[in-house]
Amino acid sequence: MKDIYNVGLIGFGTIGAGVVETFNRNLNLMEQKVGAKIKLKRIVDLDIETDRGVAVDKNVLSTDINDILEDPEIDIVIELIGGYEPAKTFILKAMGHGKHVVTANKALLAKHWEEILKTANDNNVRICFEASVGGGIPLLEPLNERLAANHIKSIYGIINGTANYILTKMTEEGLDFDEVLKEAQDKGYAEQDPTFDIEGHDTAQKLIILTILGFGTYVEQDKFHVEGISKIKQEDIEFIKNELGYSIKLLAISRIEDGKLEVRVHPTLISSDHLIASVNGVFNGVYLIGDIVGPVMMYGPGAGMMPTASAVVGDCLDIMENMERPNIYGPKDTEVREIKNIEDICSKYYMRLTVLDKPGVLHAISGILSRYDISLESVNQRRKNEGREVPIFLITHEALEKNIRSAVKEIDELDLVKEATLFIRVLED
Amino acid sequence: MKDIYNVGLIGFGTIGAGVVETFNRNLNLMEQKVGAKIKLKRIVDLDIETDRGVAVDKNVLSTDINDILEDPEIDIVIELIGGYEPAKTFILKAMGHGKHVVTANKALLAKHWEEILKTANDNNVRICFEASVGGGIPLLEPLNERLAANHIKSIYGIINGTANYILTKMTEEGLDFDEVLKEAQDKGYAEQDPTFDIEGHDTAQKLIILTILGFGTYVEQDKFHVEGISKIKQEDIEFIKNELGYSIKLLAISRIEDGKLEVRVHPTLISSDHLIASVNGVFNGVYLIGDIVGPVMMYGPGAGMMPTASAVVGDCLDIMENMERPNIYGPKDTEVREIKNIEDICSKYYMRLTVLDKPGVLHAISGILSRYDISLESVNQRRKNEGREVPIFLITHEALEKNIRSAVKEIDELDLVKEATLFIRVLED
């Protein structure tokens, strides 16, 4: 136990300002928790002039990274610059100097997990990253520690607030994807280039981290299926909600099926009665199933200045309370023998076909489906519009994804089919 | 770090059998997590003959408590006999022998918190009790550690599965309280004497523990308002759901209002859009608001053999990973200066009055309410039945509880009022 813990912060952006504000507001609470003095000794950023709207002692600010890396008094380095470089170099150097590291950098962890973990272990320092998934939600530590008596069977989470906001608005207000995206951009909930969020890449990076913790397995991002929400139309949302009693959510899924690990990110139909269907707006929620505990869910703000700062500072306090704790993330001897190819998963599917409203069209489609061993739970053509384009909605029974893909490919080659068929996987508990 | 950790289990009931089963199934996983051997060295119970349905080495069983208390090799004692005595004596003695303690005993903690904590600290041992509130849900540690950078502003939770099951069934199936209670008893979800669960006493004990962790304040059970669900009728549920878009939940509430702490257990109206309204059946959910993080919720199985065992064993692993951690529960320097009397709270209220359907009845009632400064948001008499008893449903604007109580007392003295008026507090975020 030390008398004082010194913290260095690299990156004085939005989250960095949140960390400073947390220190400003709650330092007393934090010091009492740890039983020692805590000092935010140095903040390094390229820009130390711009006012971040939080009170900060000018003498703490520096543009020289070595003021943190080479200061022997600094125990913990918070990295909040994000991205791969120079974040990675700074983190590895900090570890080389014997400093513990707290980061919210999901991209870096998802890409360089093994190197970062090894460097931490080689230097006997801790690496904590609660803020990297689910923002302020207490999530990674509960999964990794509180549930350590469990083999995790399944994780599925809503871990991107932008995508969830868009799907929620489409559902609640009957608006189209483009309209909602524009509104989200105006409100600052979506970036000007929203690809990273709406196409599932952000979710995929976070899922890599969840998969390490839940299954002790590191999976590279190009090794699993990632699909976004941009093809979802208002008519999908409406049909799924009103006719099926389901919701569409962009889910990160990682689960064991027959000894193989399924890792996938895609829009998913889930029963509206399922608690995760009630995770709305920019909020995040992660639903876990352990073999001993059964299902648990953690919910909260998945992003934002102050929520993310809460997790970052929580990690700092945890390190101060136990600097010796080894970095054991995920079960060591994983049950996972293989990552399942997306083509080998089994699921029910929702499909929206856009066809010419003519006699025989359904017969042609059902013929193809049956040849691929796909049976139907329901078929629904809600509009009649003889000779014009209409949507047909199908729900299949459990089918193999590779059969679905082949069938959809054949279906889309039919003259009567006027638009690429959309298919969405259904998740049942 | 030791090579082997020995655990002693006191109490081989349902949860105890769950702990044994967890050791049987997942010992390998647990040992890898901790990096040492783990042994369930001794199980003590008065009855060591009855088959608990789990595999257990006969040599591990004993009826002599001293086989645990006086065995110097045992590092951690799990207490699962419940109740006050002999549980308390055993726990204090175990601590006196330098053993760390894990317990799920909410009754004991709620009553003797200060003595137990002091004894643990005097003996430099840890006391862990994750399973005492919310069963298997990772809840207390996240609140106490992960959110340690936050001043907690508000906690409200559904932490009794029996009461929640009954309210859920009444809501979903339109049944009356007595019918559902009987069904719950038949299914084993409710005790033959259900008082402890349905009148809120179990919830109150758990709330005491949550209040320690959230606000650093110990409140005795007879110092706060505790009210159960037995007066709720199907007509309340129905009106609240269909006309108001609200749900009734038995909530444990602990929150700071104007520097004073409100601690209360009672049925509560909460908007059906609120995530906690989606916590159904025997499940538990606790919603927390921190000043930095904002709102978070943890959800899962609040009771049961295996879920509770998951939390108990999780505590054991946590102790093995850090035997030196001091017992710091809740903020040290609490913001709380005073516990607010229930009469001083401010709330909206739902009221169900049973009156004779006669001209003038509403005039009489509204006169009383207005004299007590209570204004109405809505009044609803859905049935006409001239000269007979009918229910009237009222929603008030924000009012002081003491005024509500005085008004209800006067109203219930009117000749036209035929049954004690029910009032239920409304919780708004």
From TrEMBL, chains A, B:
EC number(s) on file: 1.1.1.3
Record InterPro entries: ACT-like_dom_sf, ACT_dom, Asp/hSer_DH_NAD-bd, HDH, HDH_cat, HDH_CS, NAD(P)-bd_dom_sf
Class of this enzyme: oxidoreductase
Pathway: Amino-acid biosynthesis; L-threonine biosynthesis; L-threonine from L-aspartate: step 3/5; Amino-acid biosynthesis; L-methionine biosynthesis via de novo pathway; L-homoserine from L-aspartate: step 3/3
Gene Ontology biological-process entries: methionine biosynthetic process; threonine biosynthetic process
Superkingdom classification of source: Archaea
Domain ACT: 350-425
GO molecular function: homoserine dehydrogenase activity; NADP binding
SUPFAM superfamilies given in the database record: ACT-like, Glyceraldehyde-3-phosphate dehydrogenase-like, C-terminal domain, NAD(P)-binding Rossmann-fold domains
Key words, A-Z: Amino-acid biosynthesis, Methionine biosynthesis, NADP, Oxidoreductase, Threonine biosynthesis
Similarity field: Belongs to the homoserine dehydrogenase family.
PANTHER family reported in the protein's UniProt record: HOMOSERINE DEHYDROGENASE
Protein name: Homoserine dehydrogenase
Species assigned in the record: Methanobacterium bryantii
Upper lineage: Archaea, Methanobacteriati, Methanobacteriota, Methanomada group, Methanobacteria
